[in-house]
């Protein structure tokens, strides 16, 4: 299992126009995060979850969850993904998860409640530029879930909550990258690590 | 200098509707390639060029060039970038470069002519899954320009032309990734290498 939680500080919590996706509190960033997290060329990654915490008006907080194993009829372009998020926001979000499309769910959780749930199945890592180099610690990450902010970053009070749950602060670059680039790089480093492990096991079994 | 050349095998060569960017021969892929290549969080990379070779109907080939140092009023979302490409396609493409917006140019070059020009200022690398691991060779790349295909890949006859100009075939993953993910990873590996070199020089000058 692998997961990403992206905090959309201004992302709208009501249905929005597909003609102006950035205008919906920079929903374009969140769409690209989903796209870059779950899609490969002509296929979708297995066992990957993306959580979007929407904190914009008029009805925050709302969480949208995407389960890669169950998602259907999604393309990697922003408009396709935005259309599915818009549809999800037409549903009433309750305490539990409501499925709004195959593999897409909505809930009225806040950051603390969400992290409490997630820490049952994931090891939480907080992504920040000054963290530990992911390349040095990816080998020991089991079922990691990375928490990261959008263009605004992560507010101090949210950071405090995250750090209560996080095993480590991890950095993917000394440059300040866009959220979806951080996700691509995390996937890349984890892929390399898991392939190295597979190769090692393969070599071992050959002996 | 760093560059990327993405081959859009079916990408339209006439102005298209922004309501259906994937329908324009998967122009969405090319927009994401530009976005992931040149944007950082709240800034734009220096000295980076992206070339899109559009090979779709009705008027192929057309090349769109984006110079990061000169580009203005572009946002990282697909629609913003698609709007600028659409505008470029309203101009008549000639043999030379016509500027259609700050930092955006159009020309009626084919793959061979383009690579002939580019090989004057770049070392050309061809991106293919079975190539050399980029991590092993990034340290020796000076002014690299990476050639890669869209969702269709690269046609045999185009590959032959590329290989005539390419110094090496380079791979960023054993997984089949989307073109924009390959670009993000190439930037990442080159950033790490150049930072290592800077650190080494820094340590050296301290002695």
UniProtKB/TrEMBL annotation, chains A, B:
The EC number(s) this enzyme carries: 2.1.1.257
GO cellular component terms, A-Z: cytoplasm
Gene3D superfamilies on file: 3.40.1280.10
Subcellular location: Cytoplasm
Binding positions for S-adenosyl-L-methionine per the UniProt entry: 127, 149, 182
SUPFAM superfamilies, per database record: alpha/beta knot
Pfam families linked: Methyltrn_RNA_2
Summary of the function given for this chain in its UniProt record: Specifically catalyzes the N1-methylation of pseudouridine at position 54 (Psi54) in tRNAs.
Family: Belongs to the methyltransferase superfamily. TrmY family.
Subunit relationships: Homodimer.
Stored NCBIfam families: PRK02135.1
Protein name: tRNA (pseudouridine(54)-N(1))-methyltransferase
Organism: Methanothermobacter tenebrarum
Phylogenetic placement of the source organism: Archaea, Methanobacteriati, Methanobacteriota, Methanomada group, Methanobacteria
């Amino acid at each position: 299992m692998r997961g990403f939680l992206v905090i959309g500080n201004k992302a709208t919590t009501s249905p929005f126009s597909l003609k102006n996706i950035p205008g919906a509190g920079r929903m374009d960033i969140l769409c690209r995060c989903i796209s870059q997290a779950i899609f490969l060329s002509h296929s979708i990654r297995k066992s990957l979850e993306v959580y979007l915490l929407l904190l914009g008006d008029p009805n925050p907080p709302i969480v949208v969850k995407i389960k890669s194993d169950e998602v259907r009829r999604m393309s990697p372009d922003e408009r396709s993904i935005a259309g599915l998020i818009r549809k999800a926001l037409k549903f009433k979000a309750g305490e539990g998860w409501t499925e709004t499309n195959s593999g897409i769910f909505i809930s009225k959780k806040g950051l603390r409640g969400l992290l409490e749930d997630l820490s049952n199945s994931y090891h939480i890592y907080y992504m920040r530029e000054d963290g530990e180099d992911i390349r040095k610690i990816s080998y020991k990450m089991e079922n990691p879930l990375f928490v990261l902010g959008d263009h605004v970053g992560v507010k101090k009070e949210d950071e405090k909550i995250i750090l209560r749950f996080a095993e480590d602060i991890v950095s993917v670059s000394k440059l300040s990258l866009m959220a979806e680039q951080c996700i691509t790089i995390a996937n890349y480093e984890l892929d390399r690590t898991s392939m190295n492990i597979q190769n090692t096991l393969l070599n071992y079994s050959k002996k």
